[in-house]
Amino acid sequence: MREGSLEAPVRHPLAWQNPDFTDRAKVEAECERVFDICHGCRRCFNLCDSFPRLFDLIDNSPSGELEGVAKSDYKQVVDACTLCDMCFMTKCPYVPPHEFNIDFPHLMLRYRAMERKEGQLSFAERQLIETDRNGKLGGMVAPIANWVTDRGNALTRPLMEKVAGIDKEAALPKFHGRTFVMRAKREKAEPNAAAPAFGKRKAALYATCFCNYNNPGIGEATRAVLAHNGVETEVVYPGCCGMPQLEHANLERVARDARRIAAELCEWIDKGYDIIALVPSCALMLKFEWPLVVPDDAAVKRLSQATFDIAEYIVDIAKKEGLAPGLRPLEGGITVHAACHARAQNMGAKAAEMLRLIPDTRVALIERCSGHGGSWGVFKGNFETALKVGKPVARQAVKNGTKHVASECPLAGMHIVQGIEKLGEGPAPSYAPHPIELMAKAWGLQ
To answer: What percent of the chain has pLDDT over 90?
Structure first.
């Protein structure tokens, strides 16, 4: 055994179909094993709220050891995990191939799968993660839906908190009546005679539920930047990647959707298209999580090898063909937050690398969790903790003093804006753009 995780980390497929995976006695025994190792290490004390909760439970127990913690209290640790993967990717010295075989996020996922089997997932949680259904319904009545969900609405938001458990102070995404897919179809029907000539590259943009229903502007900026650089694009959206379902351990649903969506996206690969995911969480699912949930599916494996994060793709163009001329400096500089699920792709800080291609523009990088954690951060009881975890990010963004504050994760961006507001140390930006939107701005495309 070599100490310190000197080899590259390896993740094992999830044995979610094995009855032992959701057997409470076996799950709690594995938690006990892992938690005891974590107690002896404590390297992850400052990553998220899971580890402080675990260490407080141990330190406040009669024995000061894990044996003094009731197994029923393990749930407190599990509930605080946002599946950001940062403990696995950046901190833990005992990840595989180390013989301790620690994969803390996937253990939390296993615990939630056990809870799901036991029927412990709330009705509100089950409804919130139906992103495609919610996006379609919200888009049909977008003005009303956005009025209802606006955090300044003193009539509806307290009611939402009481009924659905969504904190009345948490900012929620807006809905759009015209989705990204709809806009792309309209643009295709009304071609622009001044469009640039396309080169050899072709890319199918996996729209993602967030860009499709909640922020089509990210997709439009992506198409504009790629077209400006001679890349032919198509917009495809077979359905949600399943990250919200993964967060709540609906692994059967994730597996089913992964097989279906991968089969459709592989048809584009057959036509010579690269696959680009517009949100880091979705890229992570296609690249890494799906192959661990359905390791026997050839289409899923092939898709994982053909998928790019959008910033990763632009940097690849810059290195291999060179970017189109005309990038102009962005006055005031940029603070860019590296989303946890971008970091978990193990590709380097591609968003910062991309933005540094803009001439004469200062780019400051923040590599720390925003605290939002997908759907986790909007619930009552989690929102204040999410702000606490993300406070160092907000503080650093203010300290950097840049005009633009961007994040690869749109939800993290919204949360950082709220964190800056809470600090009260100066005006907060009204919007934290995706880095690709700033690239479009630097080319004068927006």
So the answer is: 85
Q: What does the angle CA 230 – CA 228 – CA 414 come to, to the nearest 5 degrees?
A: 125
Q: What does the pLDDT look like over 364-412, one tens digit per residue? A: 999 999 988 888 889 998 999 999 999 999 999 999 999 999 999 999 9
Q: Count the helix, strand and coil residues of the chain and give each as a percent rounded to the nearest 5.
A: 55, 5, 40
Over residues 23-42, the pLDDT tens digits come to 999 999 999 999 999 999 99
- Residue 396 and residue 402 in contact, taking contact as beta carbons nearer than 8 Å: no
* Kind of pairing between the strands at 232-236 and 307-309: unpaired
Concatenate the DSSP letters of all residues of 288-312 into one string.
IIHHHHSTT-HHHHHHHHHEEEHHH
Closest CA to 173 of 442, 372, 388: 372
**Residue of 325, 235, 322 whose CA lies nearest to 278:** 235
CB 230 within 8 A of CB 201: yes
pLDDT at 2: 57
Contacts of 109 (CB under 8 A, 6+ apart): 14, 83, 246, 249, 251
How high is the mean pLDDT of the chain?
93
CA-wise closest residue to 388 among 147, 67, 46, 70: 46
- 251 close to 285: Cβ distance less than 8 angstroms: no
| H or E stretch at 32 | helix 24-41
Structure tokens at 134: 């919610």
The answer to whether 172 touches 166, Cβ cutoff 8 Å, is: yes
- pLDDT 10s digits, 126-154: 788 899 999 999 999 999 999 999 999 99
Per the omega criterion (within 30 degrees of 0), is the bond before 97 cis?
A: yes
Name the 3-class secondary structure at 42: coil
Q: How many residues does the chain have?
A: 446
Q: What's 250's DSSP letter?
A: -
Bridge partners of residue 366, in order along the sequence: 337
Per-residue confidence (pLDDT) for residue 4, from 0 to 100: 54
Q: How far apart are CA 421 and CA 83, in angstroms?
A: 26
Cα separation, 175 vs 352, in Å, equals 28
pLDDT in tens, 78-129: 999 999 999 998 889 999 999 999 999 999 999 999 999 998 777 777 788 8
CA distance 409 to 336: 10
Interatomic CA distance for residues 270 and 262, integer angstroms = 12
Q: Return the structure tokens found at 319.
A: 């290195």
